[in-house]
Amino acid sequence: MKIAIDGPAGAGKSTMARTLAAKLGYLYIDTGAMYRALALKALRATLNLNDPQELLDLALHTQICFEPDHQQQKVICDGLDVTEAIRSPEVSSVVSQVAAHPDLRKQMVIMQRDMASNHSVVMDGRDIGECVLPDADYKFYVTASLQERAQRRIRELQANGYEVNEEEIKKDIENRDYTDSHREVGALKILPDSIIIDTSDLTIEEAVAKILSFIEGAQK
Asked: Domain residue spans in the chain?
């Protein structure tokens, strides 16, 4: 079985997808973390983030995988644990810019589909239902209000020791929403067969239970 979860930044889809995968015993693939890992590598190599060929070459020579951990899934890039580093404000501010290049997205889709082959998976991102897993058994679109998404991001950053400005966080999320929904390939959108889950007033467990209710109801 393949479950696709799409949605904007800060909607809680990654935590939901990871929790859902654990409950179902499926493989969890965080595509956003893959783009973040590539963005981090590009920043460290001081590449031109507006040069699609440089970024494509980088992707072709990058290995990204996930390793289970007792608290959270580890993101490994070229053998290095980048789980915490990819969540920095610096990476967050450029990841949508990096992910906007069409040829790069095509290469990342190849990597993501390869990961999902021969497994039951829960995969989350921006274009999973349309581009990566168009044949997914279930497609969910997870969203939340801008205010709620900003507050979640602030709590996440503060927990990791970063100083934050609420207005800057909101502006960053708005910019990412615009970039994600207006890119040429793999734009964020609600599909005709998407099941919309608004998490503004839901806990993670409540949101996951809602998704499970759709899956279990359909299987009866």
From this structure: 2-200
Amino acid identity at 69: D
Angle at 219 between CA 216 and CA 220, to 5 degrees: 90
What's this model's pTM, rounded to 2 decimal places? 0.86
Contact criterion met (CB below 8 Å) for 38 and 59: yes
**Angle between helices 89-99 and 166-182 in degrees, nearest 10:** 20
Across 146-166, b (16+ Cβ under 10 Å) vs e yields: eebbbbbbbeebeeeeeeeee
Single-letter code of the amino acid located at 122: V
CATH, range 2-200: 3.40.50.300
How far apart are alpha carbons 146 and 174 in whole angstroms? 8
Per-residue pLDDT tens digits for 107-134 = 999 999 999 998 899 999 999 999 999 9
The structure tokens 């581009």 sit at 131
Give the count of beta carbons closer than 10 Å to the beta carbon of residue 54: 16
**Are residues 26 and 121 in contact, defined by beta-carbon separation less than 8 angstroms?**
yes
Lowest-pLDDT range of 30-39, 67-76, 109-118, 158-167: 67-76
| Token duo for residue 219 | 């299987």
